[in-house]
Amino acid sequence: MAIKQVVQIGNPILLERCEEVYDYSSKETLQIVGDLVDTLRSFGDKLIGISAPQIGYNKRIFVTEISDQPHRNKHELDNLRIYINPKIVDHSEEYIVLYEGCGSIADSIILGPVNRPRIITLKAFDLSAKEFTISCNGILSRVIQHEQDHLDGVLFIKRMNDILELVSESYYRENIHNLISLKEGRKVTFKELTYKNDVS
After folding, report:
1. d(CA 87, CA 85)
2. Residue 192 falls in the annotated catalytic set
3. Using CA atoms, how far apart are residues 61 and 19, in angstroms rounded to an integer?
4. Catalytic residue among 28, 94, 147, 192
5. Which terminus of the chain has fewer CB atoms gathered within 10 Å of its CB, N or C?
6. In the chain, where are the structural domains located?
């Protein structure tokens, strides 16, 4: 697989609705997933999720991985996950504001506050074509919603109330990242993962 250049804002592929995947084990699907994982990990602590259109593929696939980093609370961490043909099927009535950045706006390195549901439930398939459901809150819920938007051609800045609330990464790290309310909001205190036909 390969580390790909991340498509930047202005490229029309970022505004397109992606196509469904029909062959989960095809060479193309395996290539996309491999490229997504390699590209995500090449950014170190700068990215926690990336979608297929961000590396030039118009397919409904994204990956997330919240790795252990000095600035991350242990309650934020989550292993690598692959989502194929994902769909958010439920969300909480409670919303929460957290700051988001994006690998496709990386040239500017800016972040902005976005109000999204605190808890979401998503159905998707893995590379074995097994359907799973994940319900979660915290930063995992946030990155899933952010990447799901990418598959529908929506950038996080479109979710903001006021574009003037964008801040630089350095300002965010120095003045916003450690606010107690945001730290609490990023914690993953609820996470359930089940596979279809699981026997309890």
Report:
1. 7
2. no
3. 9
4. 147
5. C
6. 12-195
